[in-house]
Automatic annotation (TrEMBL), chain B:
Gene3D superfamilies: 2.40.50.100, Nucleic acid-binding proteins, P-loop containing nucleotide triphosphate hydrolases. Keywords: ATP-binding, Nucleotide-binding, Transport. This is ABC transporter ATP-binding protein. The lineage of its organism: Bacteria, Pseudomonadati, Pseudomonadota, Alphaproteobacteria, Hyphomicrobiales. Residues 4-234 form the ABC transporter domain.
Length: 313, 363
């Protein structure tokens, strides 16, 4: 019986090939100019242009001299490229108070951003580690308070913080602002680290305890080396957030410590003399350069860190 | 001498009590297997012994020392986890030596111990690799090595083989047994694989709902289970259970009656008097049913119909219909039966088990 079935199948196969061979084979062909591709690429192009046009205008304008700008065509490329506006924006543009450009604001921002980022990430990662792995008494309450803190609008807390800083003698100083940034970064960063550490296999933590490592040993030797992506994510969040901050910079510091964003605002809004659009554009690009650079350098790690939360490994 | 001793252990997670009033004594050099279905508290018990969970009440002794409040590293234990739990950023060598470095051991001694563990487990060529560059079996060897270098008296294993495929599992099983024979450490081994339990254990503790149901050597567990849970849990296919009652047969001897069919209980070693009328359950393992053989000493033979035949190579598994029951029977692989055949069957009462229908305890 089985023999007959076998024979029949081979016979069948021998008949068919002619019609089979004529049929499709290999990769499915794609037409280059179908309606679908036109719509897809068209939409993408429009969206990209929409986002890039302002940047284009800024760059072009910042490279023109004032006479050329007065001609009025903001989309025209510069006839004569000049870096004068950039130099001026950096070193000699005037605010209402002084005329040393953005450089002062830049260094202030660096002195605010670097310590704030490092301190807040250090504390938040230890918080997250303690909360996810050591489940001490009251951990849940502590965590709830921290998260509730994240939902209170900043504006509500401005004045109380001014008073506190004044009482401890740090109002108006750079270190006062660093403390404020560190505190305000805490809830979201702690949440970030807690969730990341909670996603790491619990048995690793147990193995390290059996091996005799303590609280700090496990943190530095086991947890931190496994968590580079999340540290990069935290760093990007903090650097861009603190660098772009305007409100805290205005409220908590004296004019000589104003961060770059505030300095930029003061240059652009300065009422003396003519409006130097080219200098303003250059100053704006300079201020945005740092977060932009951070994204370009660590964007890949950023994506990896975000994804690592979803699929642990 | 007792090596590990657990006294009146209680463990609760908030409102939920997982272990209660648990007592367990493990002898020095003994291989004890904790066996039970998922969620019965095996890992919890092991973590309590390791000191990775703070217990709610009770005491734990290791080598005669009260370690109830000690840190895991001070208990003289080494532990192997189901997920291997190797430190991903360290090489195999660093994984092995991490604990020794934490303990500030001199470098020479560390190297000696790592080399010895690598030799025993044959992972020498892998020492410079990262865990991600190892196969599952190699990773588990390294994990065992990490416990080995600690040179401890008590090894704790939490389902070390359950992430491996069947072939590797049986290979490593043999290796763990060999390791135990050469090291003679106390080993506590959690599994839900009964083959692992039966092959490795000196004694098996069968757990259900946080309670140890029976603690005995594999042979006793298999042949004289203390209750119906243990009887049904061990053995594949499971023991056949026949519901019925005790009656008086010829000569005033007790017999087991089910669905109007009676079986002599001669040869069954009952622990108590078998009063007529008592509701009981008779348990017979598939290999203790004799098929188509001449009547045994009891002289009783019953008819059954072959429903399904499952040839498995060495064995031939039959599913029989008998007096309203379906019954699994294991015969030699060389004997074949076509479905629908009527066979004669009898039970080997010396190896059967009788349980009270109410309490499900062995009689
Ligand atoms: N952290 C915890 N909080 C609350 N309940 C828990 C916790 N850990 C375990 N349990 C509960 O304790 C019981 C025993 O868990 P345990 O991990 O010991 O089971 P197990 O026997 O090891 O199971 P498995 O074979 O699946 O590993 C389970 O019912 C589980 O839900
Ligand atoms: Mg478990």
């Amino acid at each position: 019986m089985s023999d007959r079935g076998h024979l029949k199948k081979t016979a069948h196969l021998a008949e068919v090939p002619a019609s089979w061979e004529a049929g499709p084979r290999g990769a499915r062909p794609r037409r280059l100019l179908s309606t679908r591709t036109i719509v897809v690429y068209g939409t993408l192009f429009v969206a990209a242009a929409y986002y890039l046009l302002p940047l284009y205008v800024m760059i072009v304008t910042s490279l023109k001299g004032m006479p050329e700008i007065r001609l009025g065509n903001i989309f025209a490329p510069p006839l004569e490229i000049t870096f004068e506006p950039w130099v001026k924006a950096w070193s000699s543009a005037c605010t209402g108070l002084n005329c040393d450009g953005l450089s002062r604001g830049f260094w202030n921002s660096v002195m605010i951003t670097v310590p704030s980022t490092i301190i807040s990430i250090a504390i938040a990662s230890i918080n997250g580690y303690a909360l996810s792995n050591w489940r001490f008494k009251g951990a849940d309450i502590f965590f709830t308070i921290l998260i509730v803190g994240a939902f209170i609008p900043y504006q509500v807390m401005l004045y109380p913080i001014v008073i506190v800083l004044r009482e401890i003698g740090l109002y108006g100083s750079l270190s006062g602002l660093v403390i404020v940034h560190t505190i305000f970064g805490m809830p979201i960063l702690t949440l970030l680290f807690r969730n990341y550490f909670a996603g790491l296999p619990e048995e690793l933590f147990k193995a390290a305890r059996v091996d005799g490592a303590g609280f700090w040993g496990i943190y530095f030797k086991i947890m931190v080396p496994m968590s580079l992506p999340i540290f990069v994510v935290a760093m990007i969040l903090q650097v861009t957030g603190i660098w772009n901050d305007f409100l805290f910079g205005v409220v908590f510091t004296r004019p000589e410590y104003y961060p770059m964003t505030v300095q930029l605002n003061n240059i652009v809004n300065s009422v003396q003399g003519v409006k130097e659009y080219n200098v303003n554009m250059a100053a704006t690009i300079l201020t945005g350069a740092v977060p932009l650079l951070v994204y370009f350098v660590s964007g890949r790690l950023f994506v990896r860190g975000i994804a690592a939360g979803a699929v642990k490994g | 001498m007792t090596s590990v001793s657990v006294k009146d252990l209680r463990l609760s997670f908030g409102q939920v009590t997982v272990l209660d009033q648990l007592n367990l004594d493990i002898q020095e050099g003994e291989f004890l297997v904790l066996l039970g279905s998922s969620g019965c508290g095996k890992s919890t018990l092991l973590n309590c012994i390791a000191g990775l969970l703070d217990i709610t009440d009770g005491q734990i002794f290791i080598n005669g020392r009260n370690v109830t409040w000690d840190e895991p590293k001070d208990r003289g234990i080494g532990m192997v986890f189901q997920s291997y739990a190797l430190y991903p950023q360290m090489t195999v060598e660093k994984n092995l030596s991490f604990g020794l470095k934490v303990a500030k051991m001199p470098k020479g001694e560390i190297d000696k111990r790592v080399a010895r563990a690598a030799e025993i487990l044959q992972i020498g060529p892998l020492l410079k690799r990262k865990p991600s560059e190892l196969s599952g079996g190699q990773r588990q060897r390294v994990a065992i090595g990490r416990a080995l270098v600690r040179d401890v008296d008590v090894f704790l294993f939490d389902e070390p083989l359950s992430n491996l495929d069947a072939k590797l599992r049986s290979e490593l099983r043999v290796e763990i047994k060999r390791l135990h024979q050469s090291l003679k450490n106390t080993m506590i081994y959690v599994t839900h694989d009964q083959i692992e339990a039966l092959t490795l254990a000196d004694r098996i503790a069968i757990m259900k709902g946080g309670v140890i149901q029976q603690l005995a050597d594999p042979n006793t567990i298999y042949n004289a289970p203390r209750n119906m849970f243990v009887a049904g849990f061990i053995g594949s296919p499971s023991m056949n259970f026949l519901k019925g009652e005790i009656a008086l047969g010829a000569g005033g001897r007790p017999v087991f009656v089910t669905e109007g069919v009676s079986f002599s209980l001669d040869g069954y070693n009952a622990g108590e008097v078998l009063a007529p009328g008592r509701k009981v359950v008779l348990g017979v393992r598939p290999e203790h049913v004799k098929v188509d053989e001449p009547a045994g000493a009891s002289g009783e033979v019953h008819k059954a119909v072959v429903d399904i035949e499952e040839p498995m190579g060495a064995d031939n598994l039959l599913w029989l219909k008998h007096a309203g029951h379906t019954m699994a029977v294991r015969t030699a692989g060389s004997r074949r039966f076509s479905p629908g055949t009527t066979v004669r069957l009898s039970f080997d009462m010396t190896l059967a088990s009788l349980f009270d229908a109410e309490t499900e305890e062995r009689i």
